[in-house]
Amino acid sequence: MPVKWVLYWQPNQGTTVSTQILNEATQCVESINGVKEGRWKATLNYYKPMLRDQSNHPDLPRDFLGISLADQPSKYYFVIRSQRIVVEADASIQLIMEKLQSYKSKVSLYFDGFQYQLGDFRVRVGRVVPVHSESVRGIVMEVEYLPISSMEKSRKVMEEFVEIWHEALSKRSLSGKFVNIELNFGEFGLADTYTPQHTGVQYAIVMAHMIATVQPARG
Amino acid sequence: MECVVQGIIETQHVEALEILLQGLCGVQRERLRVHELTLKSLPNLGSVSSEVRLLCDLDQAEPTWTVKHVGGAMRGAGADQLSVMVRAMIESRVSKNALRMFYSLGYKLDHELLKVGFAFHFQRTAHISVSVSSVSKMPKIHAIDEAVPVTPGMQIVDVTAPATPENYSEVAAAVSSFCEFLAPLVHLSKPFISMGVVPTAAAAAASLMSDGGGTTL
């Protein structure tokens, strides 16, 4: 599977994120000859433990989430960031979680936007929106380098792409930038060869950063 | 959802059963070596306590894992008339650290078993799976190599077939019909309603063994 980096929009201090950023980003991709391939969508669910006695709080994770990825429709990915756990499962695992009734999805987010082909790269840019809301929570961007599956071997070319991207976007004078978070995938038991589990971990980390640093705004 | 029946057979007759199954199913038998871990939720977790099974297929070069949730059996007059149990069942393949994930989520190991034997998977109106296995328990946690049989000299026969709310009657009928062929060697009935061993199994087994399954029982 090709290596993928997941970046998120970090607005400058004092500014918020909006759909306008997404529009500028997609226009920027098109301005550097990105060929639109269509829409893409992913879903992320935050789970909360259901406790019979609310006054008794066992030591359970507060960062348990599940992700459905656009390019893996039959799979589902669980991440517990604090425990450095990522699990890949068939999509039917969601039915099992519903039957167990021990955890319920309390917050769900959509990632949706457009997908582009840019030479050997595939780029997706999308907004992050809570389900049943119009409030844009953030902007994410996936950059995939199609010829290579090795994280290490692709590092240089990915860094160069991101640099070119930053340069192209800087001409639009936007109040912020796309950020790539350096991750130690080894802590999650993941190897150098890229897998969808790597994507799951990236989304979990991106969301953690986004929640901590990005103020929501109406789209 | 699945249709399921179970039975027990003396180990000495398992070879005859295998010959019979080989003739009936028309497919190659598969080895079965599964480590089954049953996890239960912590006392305060969930609106009701919950249980989930993790199955590790040890027969592969790289063990593969499945999560399985078995729900309640169908009840009522319709269900009572069926000779098979129809119950909710959902399975999902998972990556190898699913056990660690469930431990983190507040599930504890309730018990674990090792099932070793063989299985046949074939199509006969429904997709039917028949497994014959010796079930062992572990004296120490995860000590597969030290497993001891729960019922020495006896093995469990499981017949299952996936079903849906729309087709479970047909699937149940297919399973029942197939089980009749196994009746000379093993009584198959709804789980938890044991019919014991077949008293004439020895004669049936001898007949099968003497001509390699050519005899019609």
Features:
heterodimer; A: 219 residues; alpha+beta; Hypothetical Protein Pfu-838710-001; nine-stranded antiparallel β-sheet; 11 strands; B: 217 residues; eight-stranded antiparallel barrel; 9 strands; Mediator of RNA polymerase II transcription subunit 20 (chain A); activator (chain A); transcription regulation (chain A)
Coarse structural class of chain A: alpha+beta
Q: What's the rounded overall pLDDT mean of chain A?
A: 92
Identify the strand order in the major beta sheet of chain A: 5-4-3-2-6-7-9-1-10
Neighbour order of strands in the largest sheet of chain B = 1-5-4-3-2-6-7-9
Spans of at least 5 consecutive residues with low confidence of chain A: none
Helix content of chain A: 25-40%
Quaternary state reads: heterodimer
Q: From the alpha carbons, calculate the radius of gyration of chain B and give it in angstroms.
A: 18 Å
Strand content of chain A: 35-45%
Tally of alpha and pi helices of chain A: 4
Count of extended strands of chain A: 11
Order of helices and strands of chain B: EHEEEHEHEEEEHH
Average pLDDT figure of chain B: 90
Query: First CA to last CA of chain B: what distance?
Result: 32 Å
CATH architecture of chain A: Beta Barrel
Subcellular location (chain A): Nucleus
InterPro entries (chain A): Mediator_Med20 (IPR013921)
Family (chain A): Belongs to the Mediator complex subunit 20 family.
Main location (chain A): nucleus
Summary, kept brief:
The complex is a heterodimer of chains A (219) and B (217). Chain A is α+β, with helices and mostly antiparallel strands and 219 residues long.
